[in-house]
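User: Can you help me understand a structure? I only have the sequence.
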Amino acid sequence: MKYAIVDIETTGGTRKSRGITEVAVVVSDGQNVVDTWSSLVNPFEPIPARISALTGITDDMVEDAPGFDDVAEHLMGLLQDCVFVAHNVGFDFAFLRGHFEAMDMSFNRPKLCTVRLSRKAFPGLPRYGLGALCDAMDIPHADRHRALGDAKATTVLFHKIMASERGQLAVVDALKRGTREQWMPQHVPAKEFDALPDEPGVYWFLDATGKPLYIGMSIHIQKRVRSHFSGTTASSRRQILMRDMRSLKHELAGSEWMATVMEDVRIRAHWPPLNRAQKQPRAYRSVVHYVDRQGRNRLAVRAQQGTRGALRTFHSEASARKWLHQQVQDHGLRFDLLGLGALVPEESVSVEDHESRFQEALQVWKQASSGWFCERGRTPEERGFIAVREGHVVGYGFVEADDLRGDLTSQEGQERLEALSFGLHPVAPSSTLDARLRAEMASNLTWVEAK
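Assistant: Let's start by predicting it. Here is the structure, written out as tokens:
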């Protein structure tokens, strides 16, 4: 078995928004160094002063260096058929994987983290940073915070881990738990798992005929898909997927709410056998309006699965009653005439004034449940667009971001939104989706009310 001990230097930030400035690889058989390679990399963006102060890498040093595209093929060859090893492996692996995927190159290797391995091989040390470990174990560590210097030091540390009985057991255990073949359905191509993004969207588990066995959504597709097959639980759904699943696919959504809408629409279009949530919708607490036998307008909080007759829907009865009592007070209504008890506003309100105010409040509540949700798109150049009418999702789609600039609450903005709505995908009424929409309408979305 070969191990590629890797270290990279970057401009800071995240793997999607920042670049790599240096990369080094030391290939080892676990005891001896087999190959060594390193290179500066032009990130094609300024290196922050604080990063240059830490690493010593400046804009002048990388100006004539190759870009990542130029070294990617050689780097991939070095990492091929090797276990990927790094100190805090998640950081280095995520950056390299993100850069490879930007070039449409699939990259996924077994990983080992020398931080975790050191904790098991050498328990009881006060700190497990690379510098602290080198000092504690007399490991030479020249050129700290440079890729090759750190990679060489990590290699010596890794050899010490492999030379210890505790370390060998930790390596075997880590590889066993992290090997993809240990958890993925054997008939599904590995490249389909590797292609999954860690972004919001919808994923499909398909059988041999291409029909969906299960459709789900997540803000982190890759992590969510793996969670279906990892762990020790032997659920019936997991066993069916391991036996019958032959492929998977995904769709980007841009945001959690767009993924929720897309998931609901696709489930109700295909009714996969392993999807149960939409078939057994949960009960919500809804504020409903009704007219009693005496012809009086009443308000009440009810537990119901759908949204029929609901002015607002909430996850809890306490939230529903809090909203209801606040609205009655804001609109100067009488609690007793609404069937909510004997409480009345400080100033006495006549029956006639109450009825007049109630009709005005009723129109406000109904109008507030119609509008548009403007969400993040699948790319920076677009926005997600969800149309809602009287608390029901009626359409969704993606539009160019330029089309949504300006004041969307103005008359011109409303007319633009109306024009865009004709290009949306229609959505049939859904008690599950609409109830969740009503319950979360004001919590985490950019809401533009219809005039």
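Now, to help you interpret it: The chain is about 40% helix and 25% strand. Residues 371-449 form one domain. Let me know which part you'd like to focus on.
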